[in-house]
Amino acid sequence: MKQEMVDRIKNDPDYIHLVRVRSRFAWTLTLIMLVIYFGFVLVIAFDPPYLGTPLSPGSVTTIGIPIGVGVILSAFILTGIYVRRANGEFDELTKRIKNKAKGE
Q1: How far apart are CA 4 and CA 29, in angstroms?
Q2: 32-70, pLDDT tens digit by residue?
Q3: How far is CA 53 from CA 24, 46, 50, 58, 104, in A?
Q4: Which region holds residue 79: left if phi is over 0, alpha if psi is between -120 and 50, else beta?
Q5: What is the pTM of this model?
Q6: How far apart are the first and last CA of the chain?
């Protein structure tokens, strides 16, 4: 009985769509985060004086500080974007798949 339900779910067009869309979305956000993070690391590696440039003449805060904070904030923002979509579109699809699997 359980294997029959698993097979029914795996062959459900909504399930196939959910897996495809969720994977593509997750990989897109992952790629964006990797570009941001490794871009920052590459600037550190190849142009450290740029990050050491003061924000304004006589300032002790360098341009690297807000850029570093931006890297951290981008992770929170991308996570929020994923959670918002997961709680909306993905949860609705999951509920529809579960209801169909139960025969409702």
Answers
A1: 34
A2: 999 999 999 999 999 999 999 999 998 899 999 999 999
A3: 38, 14, 5, 11, 63
A4: alpha
A5: 0.82
A6: 17
